[in-house]
């Protein structure tokens, strides 16, 4: 009996370190999808010598798969003249890559898949209304310029999906209300963290790692670290991050910024303007293991996002025993407990600085064990296996085909 085939579609190269929650989720599904499935991934290549549009054997984190890059993309952290989602959709047009199960993480590419046979699942990461219709930077996301066009496209495409899984409760409700005929196919999905990578250290080891980093950066031995990890993009509002850190009057605290993106140069300029050159270190995009090492020695992880789903960095920080300071957006407020972090009441530098100060000044109120305990139900191995077990059960049962009309 042949194995069912799962094909994952997303516009990145999982072997190239980039910052982004969707990228993390895709990597977790590749890593933890059991061997009961034949696994395929359709993405992009950051190696100009890689054959384009052809299946090739590959391996990621010990999991073998078939990989097809649709085009060459050197750096997906930086906005392209032609949006990457548009290029990816164009490259899919005319191809026949259907399989037993298909996972999608963007709506646009499914313009090419409406007539494909097989079970289709759409994963939603953000609050759709805030992401598309927000009044902020219109250049941040293409659809902010044409929000009505997005919703027309959505209505055209959404009925083809057998399952719509959202890590944002507002987006889940939006889909259920806008499309009552498929409301039973829409449900909440927990984002995850990799428990093999993100885990806490003992208190002595944590302190030792902190001192070693301070020494490597030529900082005072008693320096404490605050970590921001995310794309330098208007959604994450890294400029508010810099202004908030400037409002924190604790000279022995150092900000580490992991990530890259369209606002990288603006972030550098704001750091200089705020006189923080000696108190902030920009580390660029790092491998997951390196990010985990930083989480484990940081005194706090900080998020200044304008909108979110369930940010992976929140789960990863907590899994490492690190408390979180976050703005009030997405699902994080429903995740945090009084002993695992602080939700800032306002998205202002002073309010965020005060919340950060609360965690830094009272570390014993946010013990590593309490933080890690909050994250445990979201371990990727268990969540992905549960999803795949349901898929296998459906594979063995008669299939109901949904109309895409």
Walk across the major sheet and give the strand order: 3-4-2-1-5-6-7-8
Please mark out the parts with pLDDT under 50 across 5 or more consecutive residues, or reply none.
none
Name the structural class: alpha/beta
Query: Would you identify the CATH H-level superfamily of the largest domain?
Result: Glycogen Phosphorylase B
- Please state the overall shape, judged from the principal axes of the Cα atoms: globular
- The CATH class of the largest domain is Alpha Beta
Q: What radius of gyration results from the CA coordinates?
A: 21 Å
Annotation, overall tally of beta strands? 14
Biggest sheet descriptor: 8 strands, mixed
User: Which range best describes the helical content: under 10%, 10-25%, 25-40%, 40-55%, 55-70% or over 70%?
Assistant: 25-40%
The ordered H/E elements are EHEEEHEEHHEHEHEHEHEHEHEHEHHH
Outline the structure in words.
By secondary structure, this protein is an alpha/beta fold. Helices cover 35% and strands 18% of the residues. The protein has 14 helices and 14 strands. The chain has an 8-stranded mixed beta sheet with strand order 3-4-2-1-5-6-7-8. A 6-stranded parallel beta sheet has the order 11-10-9-12-13-14, with helices on both faces. α7 crosses α12. It starts with a strand and ends in a 9-residue tail after the last helix.
């Amino acid at each position: 009996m042949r194995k069912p085939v799962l094909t994952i579609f997303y516009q990145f190269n999982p072997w190239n370190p980039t910052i982004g929650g969707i990228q993390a989720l895709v990597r977790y599904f590749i890593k933890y999808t059991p061997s009961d499935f034949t696994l395929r991934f359709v993405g992009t290549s950051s190696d100009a010598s890689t054959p384009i549009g052809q299946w090739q054997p590959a391996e990621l984190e010990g999991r073998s798969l078939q990989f097809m890059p649709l085009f060459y993309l050197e750096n997906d952290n930086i906005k392209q003249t032609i949006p990457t989602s548009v290029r990816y959709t164009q490259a899919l047009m005319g191809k026949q890559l259907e399989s037993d199960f298909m996972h999608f993480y963007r709506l646009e590419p499914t313009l090419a898949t409406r007539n494909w046979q097989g079970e289709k699942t759409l994963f939603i990461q953000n609050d759709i209304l805030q992401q598309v219709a927000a009044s902020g930077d219109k250049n941040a996301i293409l659809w902010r310029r044409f929000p009505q066009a997005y919703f027309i496209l959505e209505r055209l495409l959404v009925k083809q999906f057998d399952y719509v899984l959202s890590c944002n409760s507002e987006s889940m409700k939006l889909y259920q209300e806008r499309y009552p005929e498929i409301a039973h196919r829409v449900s909440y999905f927990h984002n995850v963290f990799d428990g093999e990578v993100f885990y806490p250290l003992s208190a002595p080891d944590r302190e030792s790692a902190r001192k070693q980093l301070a020494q490597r950066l030529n900082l005072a031995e008693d320096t404490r670290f605050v970590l921001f990890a995310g794309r330098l993009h208007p959604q994450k509002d890294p400029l508010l991050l810099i202004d908030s850190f400037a409002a924190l009057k604790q000279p022995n605290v150092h900000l580490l910024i992991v990530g890259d993106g369209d606002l990288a140069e603006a972030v550098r300029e704001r750091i200089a303007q705020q006189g923080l050159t000696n108190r902030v270190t920009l580390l660029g995009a790092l491998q997951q293991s390196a990010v985990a090492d930083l989480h484990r020695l940081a005194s706090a992880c900080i998020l200044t996002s304008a909108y979110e789903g369930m940010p992976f960095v929140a789960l990863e920080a907590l899994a490492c025993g690190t408390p979180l300071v976050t703005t009030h957006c997405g699902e994080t407020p429903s995740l945090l407990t009084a002993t695992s972090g602080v939700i800032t009441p306002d998205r202002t530098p002073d309010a965020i600085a005060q919340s950060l100060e609360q965690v830094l000044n009272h570390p014993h109120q946010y013990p590593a064990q309490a933080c890690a305990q909050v994250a445990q139900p979201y371990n990727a191995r268990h969540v992905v296996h549960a999803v795949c077990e349901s898929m296998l059960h459906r594979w063995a049962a008669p299939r109901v085909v949904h109309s895409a009309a």
